[in-house]
Amino acid sequence: MIQRSRLVSQFKKMVEFDSETYQEREIADYLTGELKQLGFEVREDDAGHRLKEKLPEYGTAAPTGNLYGYLKGTTGSAPILLSAHMDTVKPGKGKRAVQDAKGKITSEGDTVLGADDLSGIVAILEAVRVVKENNLPHGDIEVLFPVAEENYGKGSQLIDYSKIRSKQAYVFDLSGEIGLAATSAPTLLSFEIKVKGKNAHAGFCPQLGINAIEIAAHAISQLKQGWVDDETTVNIGKISGGKQTNIVSDECVVSGEIRSLKDHKALSEWNRLKEIFEGNAAGYGGSLEITVEKQIEAYEISDSEEVVERFKRVCRSLGLKGSTQYTLGGSDNNHFVKGGIRGIVVSCGMNEVHTPNEFTTEDELEKSALLALGLITEGN
């Protein structure tokens, strides 16, 4: 029932929308029209306005909110929420889809393709079209197309989850073979530590200075980075400081992140890291300015929960593996679960994401749409 040519054609069309994070207006307007044609009640929240007021990087782009659609069911089955985000990473302007004879779809090589997350969006749209065209029985269908997912899910963080009917969600936003789902994901803490020292001439009187770079280097040398246990990582990703080579540096800025599948472990690692920096700053006579933000919070969905069992039943019916795993990447689902919705993240045909080598295939897009269709109609 999935119309493969229609599905692929819509994917290629949507690739051409410029929809980098905070620039989702055009694609949101297009999707609003698509959802209305399918019979959805559609609303857009105020997340775009709130983000634009808060974030200088939003720039002059027209504010765009999270897009929500509701389609009343034909049965008494519990409602289901399907989601995929609207934004892409950079470079995402001027994208064009190129398809080879074997059905592989790439960009022209100078941008990302945007299969992350257009592959999820078109799968959801095609599945609903098939339901409508064939009068297939279904419960209430809700769709959420958030903005700003690529910036730690800043859009879905602002959703009013009290307005969502569904208690189960399927987020189409994962690499890997169709039939794979992520059922747990990490807490992610991002931090910036500004180490403050004291300037002095590096040749005449270095003893009068306090070298901020030295403080930072000594602190970093005491950290365990990479895997600190089997579910937690620590990374110093950026260092900057100093004015010129003949001045003892009075400032050094260190930025990084901590991820863990257990929230308390992420917080514990942060406290350990902070104590190391504080001890070194005090020992040298320097000081610190620290900012830390919990971008997403860890969750774990058991394989025995209905949201997973439904996924596995549908996969079996389609001849897919129906396997689950954890991921140390975040998604909108972190915020969904925190908002009270039991969700999992499913693979949808995105490969080598966040690079100009990104690709999908006709086969993957079709399987993803079949999965979405099965999730909607299962049990009806």
Automatic annotation (TrEMBL):
Keywords: Hydrolase, Metal-binding, Metalloprotease, Protease, Zinc. Gene3D superfamilies: 3.30.70.360, Zn peptidases. The lineage of its organism: Bacteria, Bacillati, Bacillota, Clostridia, Lachnospirales. SUPFAM superfamilies: Bacterial exopeptidase dimerisation domain, Zn-dependent exopeptidases. It comes from Lacrimispora celerecrescens. GO terms for biological process: proteolysis. GO terms for molecular function: metal ion binding; metallopeptidase activity. Its cofactor is Zn(2+). Residues 188-281 form the Peptidase M20 dimerisation domain. It comes from the Bacteria. This is Peptidase M20 dimerisation domain-containing protein. Signal peptide: none annotated.
